[in-house]
Structure prediction request, 137 residues.
Amino acid sequence: MTIWVIVGIVVIALLAFFALQRPEATESTLENAGNEAADGMERAAIRTETAADLMALRVRAEAGESYADLESEFALVRAKIAAAYDNAEGEAKEEWRDLQVGFDEFEASARTGTSNFLDDLNGLIARFSADVRTESE
Prediction:
């Protein structure tokens, strides 16, 4: 998370420098950069929460609870992360599409009761955990 703060500050500083070269654009450029940085940090926090939520649900599934018992909770986790990407653009929008595929694969295997249900869940958790490790480096 610290790396994102540093990267955000550097990006804002660079944008501010270039914006000062064009005084008429200073205000809108800084505002847009600040909004993008804030959105990215919010999504990072939600991804961290999502990883933790999915790990807790995995533990319950490993303890014997069925997907049918946990389905509504999985849906809430997915809805929360979807809301974080609601207005995403560019790279963040592509990231959400990839995450949706992971959720879809997991849900399809869970609903059919295939043996790789927990493997797909572990893969989904790994995606969010990888994001957390990358952002904290």
About this structure: Confidence is low (pLDDT under 50) at residues 132-137. The radius of gyration is 18 Å.
